[in-house]
Design goal:
This protein is α/β, with parallel strands linked by helices and 408 residues long. It folds into 3 domains: 200 residues, 3-Layer(aba) Sandwich (Rossmann fold); 86 residues, Ubiquitin-like (UB roll) (Roll); 102 residues, de novo design (two linked rop proteins) (Up-down Bundle). 47% of the residues lie in helices and 12% in strands. It is built from 19 helices and 9 strands. The strands form 2 sheets. Strands 6-5-9-7-8 form a 5-stranded mixed beta sheet, with helices on both faces. A 4-stranded parallel beta sheet has the order 3-2-1-4, with helices on both faces. Helix 14 packs antiparallel against helix 15 and helix 14 runs antiparallel to helix 17. Bound molecules: flavin mononucleotide (FMN) and iron/sulfur cluster. The site of iron/sulfur cluster has 14 residues, from helix 15 and helix 17.
């Protein structure tokens, strides 16, 4: 159930593993650039930044372009409920740097940009120190850029824009980063956890990766458990683990819970009765129409109202929109306003119907997936908290009275 691959070795709470200790534990970085993409493909490695895109496919697209490319290491971690990228950067920075160097070799990159959330001071310090410990030839390729702490900053085109011109705004228009990204060069944007796994797969092989996942899954995953647990914490689990196991690793429930937000602010609310037994495996979740996203498990406490929490998340996402596209700027804002009215007992049945209809209009209409992610969260809230929504708009009542004051 608890895998130990990414966080194997010294206790992550003891801080960053230095270069000498990292190399002594795992051996030197395998040399040579050939065959790794095929190995990643056989391994079935998928991105850990939220979209679960097959890593080998992305590497092939960049490697097939002419001229030097760039590797952009995504450590922005803008998702408020996620801490797993920070924990990894703070404890195993050299796994990430190994993965970035391997990615550079395989795709023909001569620049590696580490794009790390400006608010993540511990991660920034650990990555800076680790870069300085690397051999000269690698260090010369690398630079570190502090990502603005906005939700959309970690979106791949926003990241490329910020590195190029200091504006972290997403864009839908071609060229995409793999065609023309940082400095106009083909750019591979990859989450830090994905790259850390590349470093292990390159050493141990694809069969090892599939085996370490257990339960037919590919590899272990880092998850952040928060909400009705003693404290938010990060755990490494394999594909045989279910949500209840992750909650137990986090210290167990501190109150009853009716629902779990799986995948983060772009994720889905799942009723607790169904959630506990859900496997933490991307493939198994996808068959159930769910996503692990960036590994977030947010457990709703009995002192929290699902309607109010969902309204707050919708408002946050509306505030965090980059306001470049109509559906996101106006549609998401209208949904967030209506949900706030519902949460504060100022709405009627019509408002609920509007939210339902507008949420159906958001997907596929923005330059990035921000409105799509928001729509997933909103529609799951309407389903899972249907009785609570109804109570709010029909009887102007909430089963968690304290939540009304908080929402106001
Ligand atoms: C609004 C938005 C915010 C995102 N923020 C992050 C982030 O903070 N970190 C991250 O790794 N990916 C983030 N992503 C996903 C990236 O666009 C990209 O898919 C990812 O970095 C690719 O790496 P991966 O294939 O290793 O997952 C975000 C996507 C969207 C739509
Ligand atoms: S969809 Fe929203 S967040 Fe994405 S670019 Fe458009 S306005 Fe910005």
């Amino acid at each position: 159930m608890t895998g130990a691959a990414l966080l194997a070795g010294p206790d992550p709470r003891d801080g960053a593993e230095g270069f000498a200790a990292h190399t002594a534990r795992l051996g030197a970085l395998p040399s040579g650039r050939h065959g790794l993409i095929d190995t990643l493909e056989r391994a079935g490695l998928r991105g850990r930044g939220g979209a679960s895109f097959p890593t080998a496919t992305k590497w092939r697209s960049v490697a097939s372009r002419r001229g030097d490319s760039v590797v952009l290491v995504n450590g922005a971690e803008g998702e408020p409920l996620s801490q797993k990228d920070r924990v990894l950067m703070e404890s195993r920075p050299h796994l990430i740097l190994d993965g970035a160097v391997l990615a550079a070799r395989a795709t023909g990159a001569r620049q590696i940009v580490h794009y790390i959330g400006a608010a993540h001071a511990g991660a920034l310090a650990a990555m800076r120190r680790a870069i300085n410990e690397r051999p000269d030839a690698e260090r010369r390729l690398m630079r570190l850029v502090e990502a603005p702490q906005r939700y959309v900053s970690g979106e791949e085109t926003a990241a490329v824009h910020f590195v190029n011109d200091g504006t972290a705004l997403p864009t839908a228009l071609p060229p995409r980063p793999f065609e023309r990204g940082v400095s106009g060069r083909p750019t591979l944007v990859q989450n830090v956890e994905t790259l850390a796994y590349v470093a292990l797969i390159a050493r141990h092989g694809d069969a090892w990766f599939r085996a370490v996942g257990g339960g037919g899954s590919s590899g272990t995953a880092l998850v952040t458990v928060s909400g009705a647990v003693p404290a938010a914490s990060v755990h490494e689990v394999d594909g045989s683990a279910v949500i209840a196991d992750a909650v137990n690793l986090a210290g167990g429930l501190t109150s009853d819970s009716d629902a779990v937000l799986l995948g983060g602010y772009f994720g889905s609310w799942v009723p607790a009765t169904r959630a506990w037994a859900l496997p933490l495996d991307v493939g198994a979740l996808s068959k159930r129409g769910l996503s692990l996203g960036s590994g977030v498990i947010g457990v709703l406490a009995s002192s929290d109202c699902g309607v109010e929490m969902s309204a707050r998340i919708a408002m946050y996402l509306a505030d965090e929109s980059s306001r470049q596209c109509g559906p996101c700027t106006f549609g998401l804002r209208a949904i967030a306003n209506a949900m706030r009215r519902v949460a504060t007992m100022q709405a009627g049945v019509d408002d609920l119907a509007h939210v339902q209809r507008w949420a159906g209009l958001l997907p596929g209409r923005g330059a990035c997936r921000h409105p799509d992610g928001a729509a997933i969260m909103v529609r799951s809230a309407l389903q899972v908290f249907a009785d609570d929504f109804s109570l709010h708009v029909r009887e102007h009542r909430c089963i968690v009275p304290a939540a009304v004051a908080r929402a106001a």
